[in-house]
Amino acid sequence: MSDDRSLPLWAGRTSVVVGVVLVAFSLRQAVAALSPILGDVRADIPLSDLDIGWLGTLPPLLFAASGFVAPRIARGIGLDRGIVLAMVLMTVGQVLRALAPGLAALLVGSIVAFAGTGVGNVLLPSIVRRYFPDRVPLMTAIYACIVGVSTAVPAALAAPVADQAGWRVSLGIWSIASLSALVPWLLVLVRERRQRLSDTVVVDAPIPALVAGLWRSRVALSITLTFSTSTILTYASFAWLPEMLGDVAGSTPTEGGVLLAVTGLVSVPGALLAPLLVARLRNAGWLITAGVASFVLGYLGLLLAPAPLTVLWVLLIGLGSILFPVCLVLINDRTRTAAGTVAPSGFAQGIAYALGALGPLVVGLLHDVTQGWTLPLLFLLAIALLATFPAITLARPVFVEDELA
Fold first, then answer.
1. What pTM value is reported for the model?
2. Which DSSP symbol is given to 36?
3. Is the Cβ–Cβ distance between 2 and 136 less than 8 Å?
């Protein structure tokens, strides 16, 4: 699949299209399904604010670790087997969480699920590069759009399902999605075995050298900073937005979950359009600036006038998440090879998610210290403004491999 000629989307790759869609639909469910039902979980498992902070911090921490481990997995067992491993981990982790008798088991299940999600995060852009070299913007738009849906659906349904069937069913039901995603990828592996193809040859050997040199690439560092901004703000929202809205705007837990879902749904148009716009405009700086402006206006609204226009501020925060699909497409758009895609993908996501772990923790700490949301919102505003710097660097279409040549 290295030929850049334009082929019909389904030509010889139906299983891969279905597999990419199902993996993308699974990637945010383990994260988004928990925060709207924390009150129900607390009724069975005593959780302090610090425990909740740790649960909110686990996703970016595990995603960060996966960012550095996933390229090794790709070299060791191949991209396709790596995706299969990711889906197995996600399924097992979500089942463990649903059956957890106490905090320790809840943490272990979350760690396993988030580790699988992190591996999937890193490998999916390379899967797109490998199987769809002729359709990279389109496939990136499709899966980034579906990732937004995978954020919205669990967030909206978690509380109602928990009310009807209990929080364990509400958490465990999402394992069905990751289990379903295994099917097309197992078909891909069977087909490759029949064709006697080696999955690992697609990922070029010099990945370690590329990773070591990425610290010298302004493009890689700029993508990483933008990704970091998006990750900090996103995971702070996952962990605290429903509770924040309850305190500052009087939202109920169900309303808070629905509004969290709104941030995911409103990101869908941006996820669909951003990759196509990056390819056409060749100046990602304008899209990054638009994302920063949306985040800033949304947080300012919650800070200054939360109750009257709560939905508007949440919509703006959701629109700010256009930074995420922009980063995804830039990882492919600013590299020339499959190896060049895997290396910056792991590098950017590893660092971004490590920094993203600070979001829920710092917001929780500032809230505990001040017993209010003014300082946490000012912190989120400052983080959003950081992305203005890479908007300048990424205005020109420069490739990572060219910078390191």
1. 0.73
2. G
3. no
Q: What is the mean pLDDT of each run of 10 residues along the chain (405 residues)?
A: 48 81 89 82 82 77 82 83 93 93 90 92 84 80 80 82 90 92 90 59 48 75 90 83 84 79 78 76 83 93 87 90 84 74 79 82 87 92 91 81 73
Report angle CA 31, 34, 38 to the nearest 5 degrees: 150
189: buried, middle or exposed (CB in 10 Å: 19+, 13-18, 0-12)? middle
H/E stretch holding 361 = helix 358-370
How many CA atoms lie less than 13 Å away from 403 in the CB half-sphere?
21
Distance CA 143, CA 131 (A): 14
Measured at the alpha carbon of residue 260, what is the angle toward residues 128 and 239, in degrees to the nearest 5?
90
By the 8 A CB rule, do 332 and 341 touch? yes
Task: Enumerate residues 6+ apart whose C-beta is below 8 A from 208.
Answer: none
Burial of 378 (0-12, 13-18, 19+ CB in 10 A): middle
